[in-house]
């Protein structure tokens, strides 16, 4: 065809071959009515270990079905399996659905990272494990975990370890006005009270490395065999749990989900309003602030009503400082190393 002929063509003369994404579906997706329900116990390199019907004696290895795409599947999820669910060696079932989650623990790498990571799903409570010494307790990390627990619909439980090395009185005083259950443990004692509080429930354990979390898990689930490590000379523990793992309590009455030791716990996915709601002693006063108040205090918000809560003795100043550290970090405002506690960017004593 001549160059002049090309010019005479209009759009009705052009035929465009549709891409693969525009082809009409030739059949409906299968309903998988014969799928079996299972609980995800752990994830390793694209393979999910699941317990059929929540029975730890019926373990099945599964892969994510192609139709699932990149749908996240995490420890604690209840999923539907099809294919070979015999659990025999070298067999794989397929995950075709993730059921609706009743709770989700999320975090980000730091307070400005938009990428949200799901740590665990469907846990009833979050056990925040904090050492009273070696390493020193970080209230900033505790507060971050409390915020994430409230936002994800988990009940928080504060577990203080190594009470044989330090008195818990000062740390307990910081949270005395909150409706926060607390368990105190010693290295040389059986954690009987903690065991009672987690019986019949799905409990996710979280904490910095070196606080004794894996030691606790080994006491609660004797055959867990979770590695334990010593604390270094700078007061930091080594990461000994590398993947989240759901473990059945003896007798099958409850689950412990041991999560990897964390160096950071970002809250970029939490809105400033939800941050304030996670500090109930300030939530009511925040409603009295001006509409554009960021609750960060001087110099940004000199007329913030939250200061009156502390001035009137309703809440300790340390709690307000912790809230404002989170709000400043969430806003991307540079702060001192202590103000970055828990984000993984810069850390220091709270």
Automatic annotation (TrEMBL):
SUPFAM superfamilies documented for this protein: P-loop containing nucleoside triphosphate hydrolases
Main localisation: cytoplasm
E.C. number(s) listed in UniProt: 3.6.1.-
Sequence ranges assigned to domain CP-type G in this UniProt record: 112-265
Amino-acid positions noted as binding Zn(2+) in the UniProt annotation, renumbered to this chain: 289, 293, 295, 304
One matching Pfam family: RsgA_GTPase
Biased composition (Basic and acidic residues): 7-16
Cofactor(s) the record lists: Zn(2+)
Biased composition annotated in UniProt, kind: Basic residues: 17-29
Keyword RNA-binding: yes
Entry-linked NCBIfam families: ribosome small subunit-dependent GTPase A
HAMAP family: GTPase_RsgA
Protein name (Swiss-Prot/TrEMBL): Small ribosomal subunit biogenesis GTPase RsgA
Source organism of the structure: Allokutzneria albata
